[in-house]
Structure to design on (402 residues):
């Protein structure tokens, strides 16, 4: 059996294969026998030890390892193909868990629910990546376990069913999305809320934002946020405020933005003094890799356009100031930076990041000379393209003229 495990691990398929596959590997690894050996008396041959089925603990560890495995690949296509293979391996392990003897009865509630959750997530991911069979497999799985009354299993099945119900179809247009949002709003208005319900709300609004319909995304976030804010559970009420902040940010395009806070030197942000300039408000943190990778692009554009009216205001969401001071001293950032957590010093009841529902960084907002927002994601080449359009070309002195 140890030989079988070593071979399976080396194959890169999974730590513990199915009993059929393990037996197949073990048999194929045996040296070839002369043809006449097939005519030997089976009764005189020693009995082979049957492949030992993995324990629930071993399967769980295998599932966790697969969930953490980073797909290999030098190209995007190769990366995605390996990612899909990992999802199929997760499904295979989950199926072993579901058919394991320990999955039966009340004692198998956790094992079964863990397997169902992992399998559904993998199938959902495959469906999003274009696997036409995945949606059908997910539907069959939920139908098979629809009548399972074990508490954890029932909760997973209910959540998965809701996620499937409220996942936008590939052909979703504005009318279908509006109906889906309204269906979700009515359902969650009376449901006993759980964290996964909040995730569904967020994903619906996020889908609209990704398709470029910021106005519809803002309306969805506002609708969900208002409902969540009234929830008696403080955790959900707080999330509701975050949703309302996100709705506020998504509705900024073409509208004025209020910027407040206290710079590291103790001075308040005088937002009125920035009128007439093009301003990039950069929500970032010293621990945020993508934020750090974007800085050279911002610095390059700052050096190119600063003399013609381009300013940057950095809003650090770091919890402590020292890493920010050290980072600025090392990188010598040329623009002013405020700590988001110091909002009370500016006489405000909530931080700027909270006010605008910033839950992911970097969030970079570009504002024109009139104080109106022109982009909610001015990163990479897009920042330079917008600045080229918004700021007049540099006038070079013609030394040949008198």
């Amino acid at each position: 059996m140890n030989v079988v495990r070593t071979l399976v691990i080396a194959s890169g398929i999974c730590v513990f294969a199915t009993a059929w596959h393990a037996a197949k590997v073990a048999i194929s690894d045996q040296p070839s026998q002369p043809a006449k050996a097939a005519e030997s008396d089976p009764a005189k041959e020693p009995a082979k030890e049957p492949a030992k089925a993995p324990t629930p603990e071993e399967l769980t560890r295998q599932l966790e390892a697969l969930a953490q495995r980073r797909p290999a690949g030098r190209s995007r296509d190769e990366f995605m193909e390996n990612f899909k293979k990992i999802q199929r391996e997760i499904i295979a392990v989950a199926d072993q868990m579901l058919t394991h003897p320990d999955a039966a009865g009340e004692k198998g509630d956790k094992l079964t629910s863990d397997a169902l959750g992992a399998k559904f997530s993998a199938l959902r991911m495959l469906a999003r990546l274009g696997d036409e069979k995945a949606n059908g497999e997910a539907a069959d799985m939920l139908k098979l376990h629809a009548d399972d009354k074990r508490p954890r299993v029932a909760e997973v099945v209910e959540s998965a069913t809701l996620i499937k119900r409220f996942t936008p179809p590939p052909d979703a247009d504005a009318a279908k999305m509006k109906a889906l949002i309204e269906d979700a709003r009515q359902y969650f208005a009376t449901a006993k809320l759980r964290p996964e319900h909040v995730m569904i709300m967020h994903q619906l609004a996020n889908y609209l934002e990704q398709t470029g319909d910021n106005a519809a995304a803002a309306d969805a976030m506002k609708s969900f946020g208002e409902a969540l804010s009234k929830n008696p559970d403080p955790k959900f009420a707080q999330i509701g405020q975050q949703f309302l902040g996100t709705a506020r940010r998504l509705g900024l395009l073409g509208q004025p933005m209020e910027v407040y806070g206290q710079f590291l030197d103790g001075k308040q942000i005088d937002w009125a003094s920035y009128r007439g300039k093009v301003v990039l408000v950069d929500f970032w943190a010293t621990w945020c890799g993508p934020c750090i990778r974007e800085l050279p692009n911002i610095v390059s554009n700052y050096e190119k356009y600063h003399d013609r009216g381009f300013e940057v205001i950095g809003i650090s969401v770091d919890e402590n100031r020292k890493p920010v001071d050290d980072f600025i001293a090392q990188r010598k950032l040329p623009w002013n930076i405020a700590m988001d957590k110091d909002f009370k010093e500016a006489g405000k009841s909530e931080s700027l990041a909270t006010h605008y529902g910033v839950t992911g960084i970097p969030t970079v907002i570009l504002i024109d000379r009139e104080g109106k927002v022109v982009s909610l994601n001015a990163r990479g080449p897009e920042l330079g393209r917008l600045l080229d359009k918004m700021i007049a070309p540099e006038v070079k002195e013609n030394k040949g003229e008198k």
